[in-house]
Amino acid sequence: MEGLIRKIVIGKEPKDGMAYFVGMRAGGGQVEAIVHDMAFLHKYSKNRYLVYIKDEEGVSLWKAVDEMPCIIEFDLNF
């Protein structure tokens, strides 16, 4: 089952890691979406997460996280 990613924490130690979450301010915009890149996984058998931001120009790819230890938090809408 696949869900929407709400937050990603990057790094071996979560308390010292870098966190990005949907709605977070980033530069002149905010994080719009965090996506598990399934095409990359199928082609290279490696995980990659893509972080998109939205600003006045639209939605753009901001960061790609390749093969890093990550904690993923899904949006479960409790």
How would you sum up this structure, described in words?
The chain has one domain. It has one helix and seven strands; from the N terminus they run ββββαβββ. The chain is globular. By secondary structure, the protein is mostly beta strands.
Q: What is the strand arrangement across the widest sheet? A: 3-4-5-6
How many structural domains can be distinguished in the coordinates? Answer: 1
| Total number of strands | 7
Rg, please? 13 Å
> Can you summarize the main beta sheet?
4 strands, antiparallel
**Rounded mean pLDDT score:** 91
Report, as a whole number of angstroms, the end-to-end distance: 17 Å
Unreliable parts: none
SSE order, one letter for each helix or strand? EEEEHEEE
Measured by DSSP, the beta-strand proportion falls in over 45%
Q: Considering DSSP H and I runs of 4 or more, what fraction of the residues is helical?
A: under 10%
Helix- and strand-based class?
mainly beta
**What would you call the shape?**
globular
Separate helix tally? 1
Could you list some keywords that capture this structure?
mainly beta, three-stranded antiparallel β-sheet, single chain, four-stranded antiparallel β-sheet
Summarize the structure.
By secondary structure, the chain is mostly beta strands. The chain has one domain (5-70). It is built from one helix and seven strands.
SSE blueprint:
Elements: E1 5-10, E2 18-21, E3 25-26, E4 29-36, H1 38-44, E5 48-55, E6 58-66, E7 70-74
